[in-house]
Amino acid sequence: MLNVWLCLLVCIGIVTAEDGSQAWLRYAPVPQASSYQSLPSSIVALNSTRSSPVYTAGQELQRGVKGILGKQLSVNSTGKSESTIVVGTLNAYQEVFGNLDDADDLEEDGFYLSIEDSKVLIIGQNERGALYGAFEYLSRIAQEMFETGSSISNPHAPIRWTNEWDNMDGSIERGFAGPSIFLKNGYVTDNITRVTEYARLLASIRINGIIVNNVNANATLLSSRNIEGLGRLADAMRPYGIQLGISLNFASPHDFGGLDTFDPLDPEVDAWWANITNKIYSRVPDMAGYLVKANSEGQPGPLTYNRTLADGANMFAKAVEPHGGIVMFRAFVYDNHISYSNWTADRANAAVDFFNGLDGKFDENVVVQIKYGPIDFQVREPPSPLFSALRNTSVAIELQVTQEYLGQQCHLVYLAPLWKEIFEFDLRADSRPSKVKEIFSGERFRRPLGGSAAVVNVGTNTTWLGSHLAMSNLYAYGIMAWDPSIEPEAVLQNWIRLTFGFDRQVMDTITDMSMKSWPAYENYTGNLGIQTLTDILYTHYGPNPASQDNNGWGQWTRADQFSIGMDRTVKNGTGNAGQYPPEIARTFENIDTTPDNLLLWFHHVPYTQPLKSGKTVIQHFYDAHYEGAATAQSFVKQWDSLEGQIDAERFKEIQFRQVYQAGHALVWRDFINEFYRNLSSIPDEAKRVGHHPYRIEAENMTLIGYRRQAVTPAPAASGYTAIVTTSNGTAGTATTNISFSGTFDIAVNYFDLIGGKAKYELSLSNRTVGTWAGDLEDKLGHAPSTFLDGHSATRITFKSVQVQAGDILKVVGQPDGIELAPLDYISFLPPGVVD
Ligand SMILES: *[C@@H]1O[C@H](CO)[C@@H](O)[C@H](O)[C@H]1NC(C)=O
Ligand SMILES: *[C@@H]1O[C@H](CO)[C@@H](O)[C@H](O)[C@H]1NC(C)=O
Ligand SMILES: *[C@@H]1O[C@H](CO)[C@@H](O)[C@H](O)[C@H]1NC(C)=O
Ligand SMILES: *[C@@H]1O[C@H](CO)[C@@H](O)[C@H](O)[C@H]1NC(C)=O
Ligand SMILES: *[C@@H]1O[C@H](CO)[C@@H](O)[C@H](O)[C@H]1NC(C)=O
Ligand SMILES: *[C@@H]1O[C@H](CO)[C@@H](O)[C@H](O)[C@H]1NC(C)=O
Ligand SMILES: *[C@@H]1O[C@H](CO)[C@@H](O)[C@H](O)[C@H]1NC(C)=O
Ligand SMILES: *[C@@H]1O[C@H](CO)[C@@H](O)[C@H](O)[C@H]1NC(C)=O
Ligand SMILES: *[C@@H]1O[C@H](CO)[C@@H](O)[C@H](O)[C@H]1NC(C)=O
Ligand SMILES: *[C@@H]1O[C@H](CO)[C@@H](O)[C@H](O)[C@H]1NC(C)=O
Ligand SMILES: *[C@@H]1O[C@H](CO)[C@@H](O)[C@H](O)[C@H]1NC(C)=O
Ligand SMILES: CC(=O)N[C@H]1CO[C@H](CO)[C@@H](O)[C@@H]1O
Fold first, then answer.
1. Cα dihedral sign, 246-251-254-259
2. Mean of the pLDDT values across residues 1-10?
3. pTM, whole model, 2 decimals?
4. CATH number of 159-487, picked from 3.30.300.30, 3.40.50.300, 3.20.20.80, 3.40.50.620
């Protein structure tokens, strides 16, 4: 009896350990398994070579059907076609079973899927396509989509890659989920277990290439030992139809090859690249190609020798061409020393300026990889104007799954709606329909190549990205790279079913949270097209708008006492609006036709400028920051309502992040609002900004062993001031008398730095309310800070605490290392109040 109960519980998936490692490929049993029409009795996979994706498809079908429907099927490479799942390439199928006219329209990587009673046909145009079809079938049955019928699915574009910014030492630039799965201590890793698992995940969303090292590339990847290692990685990915690619350092012939030049027009340099390329291809015959970042942010490139970007790209193109490889050449080329005092200087102009005159000069196997917006993965940007400027050059769009500027996986931000807006944006090239998605597919300008690349930066963390909910972004990336016409909400709901099962409330809640998450994040970070107002000089994480201006990086807001925004008009500004085709240029040139959400991207206006909503710019800032932060609070309640409907492990881990996000959203809100109130001297009509009646400032308490500390940037602390212990060895105490009674949530804002784990205890008249440690650096994975600032500022809340007038509030902070138990304020919040 006990066993039956155990099985029942395990089988409905409530108590199984869920650590996120299986992501959307959990193959959890479905409740309505019995309503599947008669199940095939075996699997025929028309290739028995172990490295074949068709073989993989057979194994995956066996594993999936066992998990989802509870039936063990045999796999064979030959057999009859009745009562069988047959998976293979069109050619292999036709050889054995004769013609299949229904599959005539298959394109490269495409698949045909036919489900009829107990007969399932999964036919790929190539081996990879057959594997995609198998995953599609499994995804459907895992979601109880048991409908019969047949369909063909072809990709939107041939290139569907990820980029991983992994360094040779195993660290990952803008990675938030632990160290690299590919590289370690200067070499390609020996242990390919996680690489295989990652390839499996990516194949299931139809990704066909992975660039395994950072675009800021290190030439030591080209050593013999590492080339052998790359071979191992490629061998691990090949059964999943995924091709390996690498990023190159332009100066390799010089830095690594011992030549005295890396001039792309020097024959010796060309010979060196041809030689090393041949060597790599002899170990990885199906290598996808190269990714190159040149002349950007200090990287070497062809401009060093007065050669054009096309000269540089074509040098690599010629080396890989005999092997069928391609070169992804990044358009992210800009000068990071432009002059702030020059009103018409503009980093957003850089890509079009640098590629000016080069359209058509690139070899056919070069693809220019263009970030979705003209600056750098901001919370809102218009599409890059380069998409409409290159007509005779293949292009791909570059997206980020890793949330570099968008909360670093510590804030829930479902990105598919952001991507969707870019995909569907009609650039009206030559006054004809020219959606961005039709341009990067190659369709609009009739280019043979095209597609997408997303920076993912998975790490060794079990959850892949450091956060369970962030995995919806990876899933959506693959699905939308294959078919950008899909609605983000539909993609999300498939992901929810596969990741969390069928509970209606779970579905509705995660859908609602995710769909609100990007607008909420935009609201409390940077709205009206001003960019994510994060610290661009440090970690790209917490708030610091002042860091955007007065430097050569060009992520400017041009905020002063009276006005804000970049004047990108042709008539009086940087001329960036004029880089778009005429219809779009006119829209952005005119303040009346520019949408509110891009107003400050294109125009420099007074804070009192009215929006289409009727509000002024500054009041919109205040309101949006309050509303966005309030939305982040509501996520906690929403998530909490799912307790018991989701396995405890993932429930707790996600709850932890939502609580953290809610606290950090308030840090964002108060920082940004205080910054602009201070700068503009215009008060908030609703009198919220700067008024915090529930707060007790730590600096106003009686301090023993603590001292006041002015915080920089100032708005990172309430009242611009925090307290820190006077030494790093002895505990400090802050006390004050409480003059009110009731039940309150007590929120404590403090700073959690890397470089120490301070301990805190909060008590009321010696009754301990709570203890905690400053150890978020072990739990969150975002880029750490060693300062009291907008990155380290955080909040912990103790719920429903009884307070008596006359109580003595006391916080004892035990410093550790450089973390001097820093404390900002303590809020006593009546029920329903958040401040
Ligand atoms: C079987 O798979 C191998 C490895 O992918 C491939 O080389 C071979 O052509 C395939 N055979 C058939 C008949 O498709
Ligand atoms: C390149 O990698 C080597 C080997 O890990 C390392 O010693 C060197 O510091 C790296 N160079 C850069 C610029 O990171
Ligand atoms: C390889 O990595 C996997 C996954 O991280 C781990 O479980 C396994 O123990 C590692 N194998 C070795 C030999 O280190
Ligand atoms: C090509 O590389 C090999 C070593 O892999 C080296 O022996 C040979 O000299 C190189 N040739 C050229 C032209 O650089
Ligand atoms: C590149 O051109 C500039 C100006 O035309 C010249 O001053 C410089 O010496 C050239 N550099 C090289 C490496 O040829
Ligand atoms: C200002 O920047 C523009 C655009 O880059 C440039 O053409 C112009 O020469 C610059 N003006 C000065 C004074 O440097
Ligand atoms: C995964 O990352 C989270 C957050 O950084 C951390 O709490 C957890 O310990 C990590 N787990 C592993 C296995 O790395
Ligand atoms: C035009 O540009 C100047 C800077 O050259 C700037 O000070 C002024 O505010 C701009 N005028 C308008 C109407 O935007
Ligand atoms: C964002 O702010 C706008 C303007 O204040 C508001 O209308 C909207 O509801 C907010 N959305 C979210 C999700 O916070
Ligand atoms: C508390 O601190 C704030 C800012 O640090 C200060 O402006 C205010 O006057 C203080 N209030 C009291 C009651 O001491
Ligand atoms: C305390 O600070 C001193 C001086 O800055 C430093 O040398 C010492 O290592 C610190 N102690 C700890 C425990 O970090
Ligand atoms: C018809 C046939 O060949 N069936 C074999 C398929 O493979 C299983 C093992 O997976 C064998 O047991 C069957 O005999």
1. positive
2. 43
3. 0.96
4. 3.20.20.80
